[in-house]
Amino acid sequence: MVFELGGEQDISSGSSSYEEFQDNDDTQKRRCGFVGSVRDFLARLEHFTWANYTFPMSTGGLALLLAEQTQGLIFPGLQTIGKVVYIFDLVIFTLVTAAITYRFIKFPGTLKHSITHPTEALFLGTSTLSLASIIAGIARYGIPSCGPWLIVAYRVLFWIYFVITFALAVGQYSLLFTSPLLRIQDMTPAWDLPIFPFMLSGTVASSGAAFQPPSEALPMILGGLTAQGLGMCVSIMIYVRRMIQWGFPSPNSRPGMFIAVGPPSFTSLAIIGLANDFPNHYNYFGADSITIQILRVLATFTSIFIWSLSLWFFCISVVANLAIRKQLTFHLNWYAYVFPNVGFTITIIALAKNFQSRAAMAVGSAMTLMLVAMWIFVFIHHVKAVINCEIMYEGKDEDVYVNEKKHSHVKPNKSVSDIEKEA
Question: Residue range 269-281: average pLDDT?
Answer without folding.
Answer: 87
